[in-house]
Write a structure and sequence with these properties.
44% of the residues lie in helices and 16% in strands. By secondary structure, the chain is α/β, with parallel strands linked by helices. It has a single domain, classed as Rossmann fold (3-Layer(aba) Sandwich). A seven-stranded parallel beta sheet has the order 3-2-1-4-5-6-7, sandwiched between helices. Helix 1 crosses helix 5 and helix 3 runs parallel beside helix 4. It is globular, with a radius of gyration of 18 Å. The structure holds NADP nicotinamide-adenine-dinucleotide phosphate. The site of NADP nicotinamide-adenine-dinucleotide phosphate has 27 residues, from helix 1. NADP nicotinamide-adenine-dinucleotide phosphate binds next to helix 1.
């Protein structure tokens, strides 16, 4: 009988997922990671699957990993690029990776957790889910869709014993945080602290930094007002 809790971290060769993996291992968790690159993690309680969340064999591979349902599943995969009319396929790709691949993970993980009537799913969306963005519309839209789905799922699964958390960060200091201005940027360590709070308290929605969430919500209102006076 193995008493160590086990976590599945999807998207953990780098950034927030990697920071979380190291921390969970330090706390005695068993962790399985998934990413396209091999993992820098070397630990007796760590295993890794190298695959793309969009690969044809991703669902069978994940199903094998989830033969033992994880106690915790964290979806950290996310990509974003500046909008480019010359590269519209990039927009589709971002929606597929950020939104549809998360759904593919949930398709496997939710029934496994519901069968046991326990488990916790954390989905990393973004404060950008509240933006109407001309610069990166696919990133904002993918996160808005994922936020809406995750929070609906949280309400649906609560009576079945499974917790779901929508974790909305502002800027975190990883390769993903591009651009010249990154207000209120937090370190990966700080982001991991927030993740541990989510693991302990299991909120449905968790936004950090809160002030950034308020600013982005205000920007969204202003954009909506501006759009009322725009034509064409
Ligand atoms: N950093 C920020 O400022 C920020 C702010 C708000 C929200 N977030 C969200 O937080 C999450 C983690 O972001 P991060 O900053 O840690 O990003 P990151 O440093 O770029 O790490 C992303 C991870 O996802 C993996 N990944 C990417 N595409 C994949 C694919 N197709 N298949 C499998 N794995 C894939 C990457 O590994 P491989 O490349 O090896 O596959 C990497 O391990 C994302 O959802 C992001 O949108 C980040």
């Amino acid at each position: 009988m193995n008493n160590h809790p086990n976590a599945l971290v999807v998207g953990n060769s780098d950034g927030i997922g990697l920071g979380l993996t190291y921390r969970l291992l330090g706390l005695g968790w068993h962790v399985h990671g998934i990413s396209r690159s091999t993992s820098p993690v070397s630990h007796e309680c760590y295993t890794h699957t190298v695959t793309d969340v969009l690969a044809a064999d991703f669902t069978p591979a994940l199903t094998r990993v989830c033969a033992t349902a994880p106690d915790l599943c964290v979806y950290c995969v996310g990509i974003g690029e500046q909008f480019d009319t010359g590269n519209m396929s990039q927009e589709t790709h971002i929606m597929q990776v950020n939104l549809m691949a998360a759904m593919a993970v949930l398709e496997v993980v939710v029934p496994a957790m519901v069968d046991r009537r326990r488990g916790h799913i954390i989905v990393l969306t973004s404060i950008a889910d509240d933006l109407i963005s001309a610069e990166a519309p696919s990133y904002s839209a993918s996160k808005a869709g994922l936020t809406s789905y995750t929070e609906g799922l949280a309400l649906a699964l609560r009576p079945r014993g499974v917790a779901v958390t929508n974790l909305r960060f502002g800027f975190v200091d990883t390769k993903m945080a591009k651009g010249d201005r990154k207000p209120f940027m937090m370190t990966v360590d700080r982001a991991v602290e927030h993740l541990l709070t989510c693991i302990e308290k299991r909120p449905i929605r968790f936004t950090r930094p809160r002030v950034m969430g308020c600013i982005v919500a205000a920007v969204r209102c202003l954009t909506r007002i501006r759009m009322r006076f725009m034509r064409g």
